[in-house]
Amino acid sequence: MTDVTITFPDGKQRQVQAGTTGLEIAKSISPSLAKRTVAMQLNGALADLADPINQDASINFVSRTDPAALELIRHDAAHVLAEAVQSIWPGTQVTIGPVIDNGFYYDFAKQQPFEPEDIPKIEKRMGEIIAKNAPFTKEVWSRNKAKEFFKDKGEYFKVELVDAIPEDQDLKIYKQGEWLDLCRGPHMTSTGQVGKAFKLMKFAGAYWRGDSTKPQLQRIYGTAFATEDELKAYLHQLEEAEKRDHRKLGREMDLFHFQEEAPGSVFWHPKGWTLFQTLIAYMRRQQARAGYTEVNTPDMMEKHFWELSGHWENYGENMFTTVLPDERVFCCKPMNCPGHVQIYKNGLKSYRDLPLRIAEFGKVHRYEPSGALHGMLRVRHFTQDDAHIFLTEHQIMEECLKINDLILSIYKDFGFENIVIKLSLRPEKRVGSDELWDKAEKALSDVLDEVKRRSNDQIKTEIQPGEGAFYGPKLEYVLRDAIGRDWQCGTTQVDFNLAGRLGAFYIDEKSEKNSGNDPPRDLRLARTLHRHPHRELRRPFSAVARAAADRRRADRFRRQRLCRPRCREGEGAGPARRNGPSQRKDQPQSPRAFADEGAGDPRGRKARGGREEGLGPPPRVSGPDCTWSRRGVNGACPRSGASRSAVGCRRKSVARSRVTRSCFSSAVSALIP
């Protein structure tokens, strides 16, 4: 037999006979290496250690404690679960059991439903199977042999899976002792490698292949880790998450509720709505400073409009529709983009008008399957803080960096500093030519590189092939919460397609009409940047509600000390009073009153000097040596009642994030006794 070249992680190479297995290579290096190795990576892909190597390849041996082995541990645990269930309840059909985030599941077709007391029974049997340490072995069967075998066993779901496997792929059967399953693999060397760090979490219902017209199955969720300490840490994290569950806090604090008559929609109570409006008021101030103009577009528009934009073809299954008596079909908007293009088109635009920034707190409706709904994190009706920037191609870098700065400053105000930015590239289902997608992806890739450079590599970045929107690539901002969970929140998207599809254009420097349908030029209409600093206001709201529950007592104490000016002896109205600020009409409001102001309180508007809510800078709050004031307002000292000039308050510099959190914590405390 011919030799093949094996390259090791340190760059060294070795010639071995074609057909040599990974286990044989490991044994030739060291018996201890072979003993602790559970799988291998061939050219970066996980493979069975017993697989023969028939061509040149790079090899990396995977031990049970390697991060790459965690997927295998969970995959093998799913197989052990399936064997345990079938051994306890013969006649139960097994279907599929994939690895998912933080664990695995397996779907079963069983006559009687599982009961909570079944979990310890199944776990005990799983432990017995693991203790047997039966080896995993792989066989390749013909389709006819596999179908006949599963038919004889009454495993009709497996027969359907056999038919679904492409003809050019091997049909693999993995055995663990006497039990076997249809599986793509790979697996570790034996069931004993699963270990003791596993736990079954819950039961759930699921449709076969996710299709509600097909049989309903029973799903068992589980998790597994390499060590018991990791399992304990994960279970502790779940306990902490349960304490912070926004659905629970919403009920306890009388903020909001859900009910079956309006699935995926929130019923806001007075306190919750006031808190929600405080969030919106904060965002309005941030957007006004950044040069955005707020607009509002219709919630429902005719179907042909969404056909022109491309939404009906690529997103139609997620849209709510209604047919009027005159047989016209209307759709509830799932996104604000097409409406903003119509506002842009209303009136002639010149290159001098660009970039044009439009923002909206738009109410959008998206159909989510019932099983996917989850509190305020997965809903069918929500308010989206959405903006679009109409610009020329050479302005993309500058505007994207401004958007990035705005998004990061907002997240910092809410205490989020551990952020990952992911670049999501073109999906299979999309609109527009490959040329336009190449341009859009190159633009965002350059932006990502610049953001990383400016942060001195402090901001982590990732690439996600196939995860972009159907109209353009996007940057996704992923936040980590107090207990280590990651949430995808804001996005920046470049769309080279929508403006041209809807007939938008501008007059360029040569007095010529320039639109998205024109051949490439130095200046083009872009194409729209979608900015979602807090993509759905429901997410920061739930984060604030959780933080409020953890910090209410500390906030009360801090609120009393928020503004304690130091007055010069012999000036003003005397020493500061300890019982709270004077509430004369000519004084600025306290931080607590500022919360009411953010929610539309008449006193708050009056304190702003008659300005519209959300315009102008927010109040600046400092430490104990200073009063707090609003730009352009020479307010009185909240403690002593004396004028600001009389008491001679000295302002200390305080970071904006700390200021905003102090004000917002006061707002929360004002709402929640």
Question: How would you explain this protein's 3D organization?
Answer:
- The protein has 673 residues and is of the alpha+beta class.
- The chain has four domains: 3-63, Roll (Ubiquitin-like (UB roll)), CATH 3.10.20.30; 69-241, Threonyl-trna Synthetase, Chain A, domain 2 (Threonyl-tRNA Synthetase, Chain A, domain 2); 267-541, Bira Bifunctional Protein, Domain 2 (BirA Bifunctional Protein, domain 2), CATH 3.30.930; 562-671, no CATH class.
- The protein is 35% helix and 22% strand.
- It contains 20 helices and 30 strands.
- Strands 18-22-23-30-27-26-24-25 form an eight-stranded mixed sheet, sandwiched between helices. A five-stranded mixed sheet has the order 2-1-7-4-5. Strands 8, 9, 10, 14 and 15 form a five-stranded antiparallel sheet that branches.
- Helix 3 crosses helix 4, helix 9 crosses helix 17 (591-598) and helix 13 packs across helix 20 (656-671).
Number of domains: 4
Give the strand tally.
30
What form results from the Cα inertia axes?
Answer: globular
Radius of gyration: 30 Å
* Percent strand: 15-25%
Brief synopsis:
With 673 residues, this protein is of the alpha+beta class.
Task: Please render the helix and strand layout as text.
Layout: E1 3-7, E2 13-17, E3 20-21, H1 22-29, H2 31-36, E4 37-42, E5 45-47, E6 52-53, E7 57-63, H3 69-88, E8 93-94, E9 99-100, E10 103-109, H4 118-132, E11 136-141, H5 143-153, H6 156-164, E12 171-176, E13 179-182, E14 198-207, E15 216-224, H7 228-243, H8 246-252, E16 256-257, E17 267-268, H9 270-289, E18 293-294, E19 300-302, H10 303-309, H11 311-315, E20 321-323, E21 329-332, H12 337-345, E22 356-365, E23 381-390, H13 396-413, E24 419-424, H14 434-454, E25 460-464, E26 474-480, E27 486-495, H15 498-501, E28 505-507, E29 513-515, E30 528-531, H16 538-561, H17 591-598, H18 602-607, H19 644-647, H20 656-671
Parallel strand pairs: 1-7, 18-22, 24-25
Antiparallel strand pairs: 1-2, 3-6, 4-5, 4-7, 8-10, 9-10, 10-15, 11-12, 12-13, 14-15, 16-17, 19-21, 20-21, 22-23, 23-30, 24-26, 26-27, 27-30, 28-29
Helix pairs in contact: 3-4, 5-6, 9-17, 9-20, 13-14, 13-20, 16-20, 17-20
